[in-house]
Amino acid sequence: MSVTPIRLFGDPVLRTPAAPVTVFDRELQTLVADLTDTMMNAPGAGLAAPQIGVGLRVFTYYVDGQLGHVINPELTLSPELQCGPEGCLSIPDLRFDTTRSLRAVARGFDMHGEPVTIEGSDMLARCFQHETDHLDGILFVDRLDPTARRRALKAIRDAEWAGLPGPIIRDSPHATYGRAL
To answer: 46-100: per-residue pLDDT in tens?
Structure first.
């Protein structure tokens, strides 16, 4: 399929809740393939459809060698929490400690409309929460405590990419920001 430009912080599509997928067809399969190719190329641990400008409830993930996707996800979260560094392909080069549930169960569908249930802890649980937030128009900086959020927003304003017009493609030779979500 293809590597697609990733939308950056400030693009309105990142703040717009995504619509549920209602048609499971070849076009959806192409979207999943494009998300996967783009995520792997970035490299990232996850990528949601709004990050490539598509307002549908679809995300892909690649954590601890586990590659997959979930369509129309619904999460069940554990009450136990974890706090650790989190980044985002739409907010390149920045990482901030973010509190998330330690475990998550993602229920939804695969690209063929078959039900899927995936359980994850630690990084996989963090990824599920991060990508589902994208589908709801929420960015990880929204989850930070007020002091960290102020620092994050200042770092975003000061970032080299801040204010650039349009999306950019993160190709591997220039992807120095590690495995962002």
So the answer is: 999 999 999 999 999 999 999 999 999 999 999 999 999 999 999 998 999 999 9
Q: Classify residue 35: in a domain, yes or no.
A: yes
Contact 92, 46 (CB under 8 A): no
In the sheet that holds 103-109, the strands lie side by side as 46-48, 58-63, 66-77, 103-109, 115-121
Instruction: Single out the catalytic residue among 74, 80, 86, 131.
Output: 131
Binding-site residue ranges: 88, 130, 134
Q: Which residues pair with 83 in a beta bridge?
A: 99
Annotated binding site for Fe cation: 88, 130, 134
Residue 41 structural domain: 12-78+100-137
- Is pLDDT above 50 for 176? no
How many domains would you assign to the chain?
1
User: Is residue 131 flagged as an active site residue?
Assistant: yes
CATH code at position 132: 3.90.45.10
Q: Is pTM, for the whole model, over 0.70?
A: yes
